[in-house]
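Key idea: predict the complex, not the pieces.
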Amino acid sequence: MRITDHRIVDIAAAAAQRNQSTVGELSNQVSTGLRVSKPSDDPAAWMTAQREKVRAALNDGTSQVVDAGHERLVASDGALSTLAGIVSQARDLAVEGSNDTLSAAARQDIATQLNSLFDTAVSTANTINADGEYLFSGENSLTQPFDMTTGAYTGDAAARAVNTGPQATQIATVPGSGLTAAGGVDILPLIKTLATAMSTNNAATIQSSLGGLVTAVNQLSLLRGQTGARMAVLETAKTAHDQLATRIQTSISNGVEIDTVQAASDLAKASQALSISQSVTTHVLQLLAPSK
Amino acid sequence: MSDLMSLLSLGSNALSAANNGVAIATNNATNANTEGYSRQTIDFESSLLGGVTSGTTGRDASALLQQRIRASAGSLAHSTQTQASISDLEDTLTSGSGIDVQLSNLFSRIAQASASPTDSTLREAVVQATRDLVGGINGRAAQVASARQDADVRIGQNVPQAAQLAHQLADANRIVAKSGDPAALDHREKIAKQLSSLVGGAARIDPDGNMRFLLDGGAVLVDGTHAATLQTSTDPTTGYQIAQVADGGVTRDVSGQLGGTIGADITFRDTTAKKTADQLDQLAYDTATAFNTQHAANAALDGTTGNKMFVAPASVSGAASQLAIDPTLDANASKLALGSPGGAIGDNSGGLALFALATAKNAVGGTKTLTDAAVAFVGDLGSAGATAKSDNDRDQIVSDHLASLRDSLSGVDTQEELTKLARFQNASSAITKFVSSINDMLTNLIQSL
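Result:
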């Protein structure tokens, strides 16, 4: 094939241009760390990575839901723990007050302590979460669930499920109905009744309250157990979220990110090729210069 | 004496032939870098009465190769423009947060608000995510529309240029028919190649030597010394320009027959970018419909139902550019319906149902999730971009190969021309000496008489 000097220069220049373009692309990959920076670079890999990013965003969102749910359950468990302590104290006071030899004045003193415990218990049961909702009100979450005077429950029995994944939900609240007769005995009114019985020196009522307080202790223990189980589920979900986030990141990395060592090696090769082609172009131009 | 005179005449003819050779070689060398120049040749013929004469000036060119080069130019221009247009749109659509990420962000905010449905901050975050999504879809729709408009502007600029080239080609046919000058043939080829780059099509040389230029659909743009008028007209339906060929009082829409740069812009505007716009409209429509349907069935914080998240789009067409957040929700986040009808204020079952839309196939006729559809509309454009890049790479290789073939046949090698020049100069010097010797002999003869 006849090749003119003009063509030789064109070929040399085109080769240098191609090599320069390759160096540019590889430099861009090395500097950004991305093999696929836009869809047309590798449509299938880009779409896969983009779907993974969507999964990551959803996973991040539900992970925060899990965190918030867990914090709420921790707060609920703390309140239940306080209530359990109060009920234990009330039971001890009831045992002390049930002594037949105890005077009315002594029972009045116990009544005072029980009233104080009742106030603390009602206040604890009406704890407001960081998001402004009552912890134990069920879904009637902006209404104070326990009457400050009687301890009667005015909330509902609904437990709230939250999203722990794209297609998964878990219960993340403890309705106050568990503190009522629905769960065993109506705990707060029971303390109030006991305090009144102490105050009125009503030995029979004091005696009859003892059994209820034992039930209340068990009831709170059971409720804390349920709360702990829900916390454990959310902790498992949290672990799964963390693992999924890592897997997604790995998947994205494998799909669109460069192998740094390989890319650096390719860049070095391409740079060398560019240098050679530039030398060839210079040499060709010298050869074809009119003075030669 | 008469023999000496004829020898002098023979020398004169030879000198003239050598000088013609020098002129051709010089012309070739000076046009070594002229694009589209075909090296010229001159034939030397021995005269019946002795001596040499130079024949007509020719050019080393292949009609078949030129035809392939013109076709290749159209194809290369088409794929180059297609790739550039798609790449630009792709860059635009992938800058900043994508709609897919904005959608997943909305779902995440809904999940968070559902966990605490009475929390005004979390509700406001959902409303803000909705605003962001609306802004994102509106923005993308504007970007796609702008890309289509840009292509339309280019069409409007290139069609008159192609029309001018068509008339220049007809003029070139006239000049070639009149002179047959090799430079005129090169000039005609150059015009035809430029025209092919703009409109694609095919040009062939008729037996009468005229170049006939036809568009891919068969419409004749140039026939001999006559050129039809290529023009644009505004399509009343789309508002975009269509390409027409007007000839003999008849006007035909040739938009679908054009290749080259103009054809690439028409295809991009009416097919590739339109598909993206349609997908975006469908996504906006599906998003608004799916969210509105579920949201209306839910109960807001005040217990009301029937509330919307988006202004309901009237139709799929234009849904992306017209998408808007429901003004009531925009003004009051408590209208975000995360509960169920008749439920307590902290009921979040409606919010869970809204979040479930993340995995429900509500897009593209129930075949994709909303987020998948959001990924796909850019991904499909990327696939088109990858195909265009592949086509462009192929066309570039073909073009380079044809350029090599053309250069092999028609290109000027300055070393070769300098060698020829030296050869003709030597011949010219020798003939000059020969003529001088004959002249001396004649002078001596005349003086001796």
